[in-house]
């Protein structure tokens, strides 16, 4: 009789699998980056999300992991979709762009899909416009 392999814990690196520890840390780091970019204090974030400042401090210090309920409250307080906190790393991260580009990106992300479409059309028109000096 052959023995069955017992799967290793969720920490095993397999394609398509998430490391919950790592992903929770990244999510909270993204919250912190957005707050720093916008000049939002931990106290202001806690008040806006209607959660305690000790919860914010514990999350940012990595002492606790966020519940989805808390993540939704943080997103509401920051006025961002949850996808902004879950973005996978890419070659050009938000740290590698200028403050002005960061501000434009944050404004874009606050727009509805119809406003995003209009903005795209407007930017395409602007790039075709030839300025005369």
State the low-pLDDT regions, or none.
none
> And the CATH topology of the largest domain?
434 Repressor (Amino-terminal Domain)
Outline: globular
Amount of beta strand: under 5%
The assigned CATH architecture of the largest domain is Orthogonal Bundle
Distance between the termini: 84 Å
The value of Rg in angstroms is: 20 Å
Order of helices and strands: HHHHHH
Class from secondary-structure proportions = mainly alpha
**Which CATH first-tier class of the largest domain would you pick?**
Mainly Alpha
Main pleated sheet: none
Q: Let me know the average pLDDT.
A: 82
Number of strands: 0
Oligomeric state of the chains present here: single chain
Helix content: 55-70%
The CATH homology group name of the largest domain: lambda repressor-like DNA-binding domains
Number of helical segments with 4 or more residues: 6
Overall structural domain count: 2
Task: Give the SSE map.
Blueprint: H1 20-38, H2 42-49, H3 53-60, H4 68-78, H5 99-110, H6 113-128
Description:
With 133 residues, the protein is mostly helical. It folds into 2 domains: 18-86, 434 Repressor (Amino-terminal Domain); 96-133, no CATH class. Helix content is 56%, strand content 0%. The protein has helices at 20-38, 42-49, 53-60, 68-78, 99-110, 113-128. It is globular and about 55 Å long. The protein starts with 19 loop residues before the first helix and ends in a 5-residue tail after the last helix. Pfam families: HTH_26. Residues 31-85 form the HTH cro/C1-type domain. InterPro entries: Cro/C1-type_HTH, Lambda_DNA-bd_dom_sf.
């Amino acid at each position: 009789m052959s023995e069955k392999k017992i799967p290793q814990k969720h920490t095993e690196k397999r394609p398509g699998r998430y490391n919950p520890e790592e992903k929770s840390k990244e999510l909270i780091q993204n919250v912190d980056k957005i707050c720093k970019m916008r000049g939002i204090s931990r106290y202001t974030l806690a008040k806006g999300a209607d959660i305690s400042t000790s919860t914010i401090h514990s999350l940012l210090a990595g002492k606790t992991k966020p519940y989805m309920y808390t993540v939704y409250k943080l997103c509401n307080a920051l006025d961002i979709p949850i996808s902004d906190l879950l973005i996978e790393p890419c070659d050009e991260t938000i740290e590698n762009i200028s403050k002005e580009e960061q501000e434009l990106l944050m404004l874009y992300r606050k727009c509805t899909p119809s406003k995003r479409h209009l903005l795209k059309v407007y930017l395409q028109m602007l790039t075709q416009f030839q300025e005369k000096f």
